[in-house]
Structures are given as C-alpha cells and as structure tokens.
C-alpha cells in the first residue's frame, strides 16, 4: 500500500525557465519549461509518485500511458475509464455521468476524485499515472484536498486540433463521445477549463510538454527520458 505524503515535489524541482514563448500555436498559451533526465532525481521507494497526464481528446494520452506502464511499472488510472466503468456498473451516478460525457462536459470533481482515490488505495504500487485528470481547476483543487498530494510530474501531449479530431473519429471503440458534435464540445471545454491547469503546472516547473505528432514510438522516445531515472 502506498504511503500518503503531503508532497514529494521538492524532489522534482527542475524548472529552468519561466520565459513566455509567443511562438507557435500552443506555446503561445503556456510558460515554457525545459526538461532533462539529470534534473529528475529518483524518488525514495514507497513514497507516492504521481504523474498527471494531460492533453486534448485523442492526443494519445491513453496510448502513451500503456507504453509508460510497460517500461516503468506505473499503475495507469484513467479518469475517463473510471467514469465509464461507473456507468457500466449501474451505479446511482451512472445516468448523470453518461449525459455529462455525451455533452463533453466535466463530471463534478467529488465523483471523479472519489473514484481515483479508491483506485489508488486498492493498489500496492506507489507510482501512478493519472490520465485525463485534472481537467479543470476545480478537479485540481479537489485532488489536492482529498488525496493530500501534488503531482511530481505533469505530462502534456500537445496535438493540433485537426489531428485530434481525425484520431478520435478513427478510434472505433464504441465510445458515446467519439462523434463530431461531442468532439467539438470537448475541444471547447478543453480550451476553457484545461489551459488554466496546464499554465498552473507550467509556472511551477512541473510541466513536460511533448509534441504529440508522429508515430506512437516516436512520441514515446520523447517521453522515455522524463522517467529514465525511475527504476521499474
Ligand atoms: N501517435 C499516434 N498516431 C496516430 N494515431 C494515434 C497516435 N497515438 C494514438 N493514436 C490513436 O488515436 C486514438 C486516440 O488515442 P488515445 O485513445 O490514446 O487518446 P486519448 O488522449 O486518450 O483520448 P481521450 O482523451 O479521448 O481518451 C486511438 O485510436 C489511438 O490508437
Ligand atoms: N477528469 C475527468 C475526466 C473525464 N471526464 C469525462 O469523461 C470524458 C472522457 O474522458 P477521457 O479522458 O476518456 O477522454 C470527458 O470528455 C468528460 O466528459 C471528466 O468529466 N473529468
Ligand atoms: Mg484516453
């Protein structure tokens, strides 16, 4: 069982720059940070190590999480998967969650954080990838308050909208939100609610922005060095 600690972020203070870069589509919106392997010390085994995985719909979060799990032994906790599981289980919240997902909106944080907390507590691992969370400042604050921890690393998969739409429409996994109307709404919500979270972590030097265009393996080669100091 993982040990709950207030934060181990002091182990990962690797911000080198707070230069505001106004070049390019997304760097226009975020504070630029730089990463390198040597700046990320190895955490003490047993201490909670949380990675938030951010990015727009279809940017490849889940796909890259699977690669990180395989290479570095994280436990993958996908907020979207937990919510879909809750719907499938016939829980009291199920119909509200379903309509929220259909509309591309954000489920109240209390519900999502409770599901994440249960998932983390039922794991013996101490290294977690929290995928698709936090989606809003409300999500972020609720996690900090309930779990009592901050992320050590925040990954942001930066992908052009056109590419995200193409990937989602080709996904073919029967998701109720994989249609053009819901994708448009999800992109709007992403712009409105997720950017403040991305900026928040960027300003704290925790954000690793990864260009998510390319093959799955090419993208993973940009992710790998971030976790290289961690043993499996
Ligand atoms: N680099 C890539 N190039 C092309 N297709 C990709 C790439 N990465 C992932 N995909 C495909 O794009 C689709 C979306 O990927 P994935 O489910 O990992 O995205 P996501 O960020 O988790 O999306 P969501 O937020 O909707 O859950 C999947 O069908 C996946 O196989
Ligand atoms: N923190 C979150 C995460 C997800 N949702 C809802 O689930 C939908 C699908 O999420 P994916 O991560 O699998 O893309 C998302 O569009 C939201 O409706 C949420 O509310 N809060
Ligand atoms: Mg996903």
Word description of this protein:
The protein is of the alpha/beta class and 232 residues long. It has one domain: P-loop containing nucleotide triphosphate hydrolases (Rossmann fold), CATH 3.40.50.300. It is built from 8 helices and 5 strands; from the N terminus they run E-H-E-H-H-H-E-H-E-H-H-E-H. It has helices spanning 61-72, 79-88, 94-102, 109-121, 137-147, 161-169, 180-203, 216-227; strands spanning 49-55, 75-78, 127-131, 153-158, 207-211. The chain has a 5-stranded parallel beta sheet with strand order 2-3-1-4-5, sandwiched between helices. Helix 1 packs across helix 8 (216-227) and helix 4 packs across helix 5. The longest helix has 24 residues, at 180-203. It is globular, with a radius of gyration of 17 Å. The two termini are 17 Å apart. The protein binds adenosine-5'-triphosphate, ligand L45E5XJ5 and magnesium ion. Ligand L45E5XJ5 binds next to helix 2 and helix 3. ATP binds at residues 58-63, 171, 214. Catalyzes the phosphorylation of pyrimidine nucleoside monophosphates at the expense of ATP. Plays an important role in de novo pyrimidine nucleotide biosynthesis. Has preference for UMP and CMP as phosphate acceptors. Monomer. It holds the Pfam family ADK. It is found in: Cytoplasm; Nucleus.
């Amino acid at each position: 069982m993982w040990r709950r600690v207030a934060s181990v972020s002091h182990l990962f203070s690797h911000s080198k720059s707070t230069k505001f870069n106004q070049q390019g589509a997304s760097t226009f919106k975020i504070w630029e940070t730089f990463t390198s392997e040597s700046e990320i010390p190895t955490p003490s085994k047993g201490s909670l190590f949380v990675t938030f995985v951010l990015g727009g719909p279809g940017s490849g979060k889940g796909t890259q999480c699977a690669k990180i799990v395989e290479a570095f032994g994280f436990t993958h906790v996908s907020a979207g998967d937990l919510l879909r599981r809750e719907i499938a289980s016939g829980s009291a919240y199920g119909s509200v969650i379903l309509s929220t997902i259909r509309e591309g909106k954000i489920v109240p944080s209390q519900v999502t954080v409770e599901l994440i907390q249960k998932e983390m507590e039922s794991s013996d691992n101490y290294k977690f990838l929290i995928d698709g969370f936090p989606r809003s400042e409300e999500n972020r604050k609720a996690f900090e308050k309930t779990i009592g921890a901050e992320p050590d690393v925040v990954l942001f998969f930066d992908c052009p909208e056109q590419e995200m739409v193409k990937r989602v429409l080709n996904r073919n996994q029967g998701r109720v939100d994989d249609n053009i109307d819901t994708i448009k709404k999800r992109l709007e919500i992403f712009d409105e609610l997720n950017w403040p979270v991305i900026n928040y972590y960027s300003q704290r030097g925790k954000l690793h922005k990864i260009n998510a265009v390319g093959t799955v393996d090419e993208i993973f080669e940009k992710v790998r060095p971030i976790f290289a100091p961690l043993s499996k």
